[in-house]
């Protein structure tokens, strides 16, 4: 909403000088003007060249048949509200293509002169600042009057537009009313347009509910290997034999299911009801047998990781996962186990910082036992995931080496080991932290997981996965995806999900501002900076003790570890952690 329409002089000054001082534009229109200028739009034109061919237009009409039907039913009410005024009513799809136009004849003719007609795309990039484009971008009712339009072709017009949403709060179209400049009470028109757009949205939701009930009442979902989805491509039924495996996908979009499972064919079989398309049956591709319960990234590096897991999981080969904290090493270890020949056997996760020789020995001799009908018996099959192998003490490493050598000799035992580290294990071998013989056993099949900041294209896929998993779909999620894609995410996927958790708690009702979202992205980075620069007294004491011991023994690590009463691996880890240098 605006207070008064800015004059031609304000527009002229902006076009000539790029200045908006002084002006009385709302922020959305100011931002749009700057966007149009940045994109190099000609302000003296504004007539769209983006027009669908007859074939393309017919295809759009077919795709949006229900939207058009519901809009026409509600437009009659809008015409009653605006009786006596001269205007044209426009309906666009979610992409801004005009699907339907109706109005007073002279106004329609005037609209034709600027190609404001069916099949034309009416977005900001095509014609400059306009109500349809703004309503679509900001997902809220907008009006643009006279010289608030960026392009000259539209400056004789008053326009009011409001978005139309489906049951998933996704925009599916825009309703617009346009009249010649100064011929109509625009705030009243905007209120009417919003009322009718909301009515169309409500009718859409009712119709989708009716269609869903019909699809679930029928036997479509049990007739062979088919997915059943609604007209807007959301899954409502799966084959009975797949319901347990894919049950979390009910209610999700077909496109994401296809992208993340690769199980959907390109064939869409229409489902009709009362001569109207209400959904599709989609055959499933042959099952690969690969179990995956997470998000599949879009980046080349992440796809390579998935391919590596598919290749190694069916074997008994020892796998080593390397990547920064929070990239998902634990999840991938679990995935390898779930797709292995011993997937029904136990999966144990042990962190090496807590794993002394005695604990490891007790685990292998006692914890890996299960009560059978006859006696306690050592489990013959298990996957053992050792996190941060670089923190395993040398005595524990020697015991693990003995176990791996024994496993190689006794093929009937199937203890599969998966290890992980945040550092390149080859460097740890050179530093004497990892036993070289052990290295050759655990480094049989290394998989590197790149940090999230090096694969930004995966961030949106991870956000979508988080939202689906938590059944949380805020209207403002589109605005935040681009901002989150710019984050550094030093804590990787874990930090991203922590941030989303905070947003889900803090912004239940009101949408956050861009600055509030940006602050959530910066929290972890600020914490890292504070923890690095503001060491507590105990930490300072430890740094001094290590430095003194190393200087005393002229850099001899073995002698320093004796004096400090810590393992060689721990000392190297603390030297790296505290960045201790110049101790010789």
UniProtKB/TrEMBL annotation:
UniProt cross-references to CDD domains, sorted A to Z: AAA
GO biological process: regulation of DNA-templated transcription
Gene3D superfamilies listed in its UniProt record: 1.10.8.60, 3.30.450.40, Homeodomain-like, P-loop containing nucleotide triphosphate hydrolases
Signal sequence bounds: none
Coiled-coil annotated residue ranges, if any: none
InterPro entries attached to this UniProt entry: AAA_lid_NorR, GAF, GAF-like_dom_sf, Homeodomain-like_sf, HTH_Fis, P-loop_NTPase, Sigma_54_int
GO molecular function (one): sequence-specific DNA binding
Stretches assigned to the Sigma-54 factor interaction domain: 295-505
Swiss-Prot/TrEMBL keywords: ATP-binding, DNA-binding, Nucleotide-binding, Transcription, Transcription regulation
Pfam families noted in UniProt: AAA_lid_14 (PF25601), GAF (PF01590), HTH_8 (PF02954), Sigma54_activat (PF00158)
Identification of the protein by name: Sigma-54-dependent Fis family transcriptional regulator
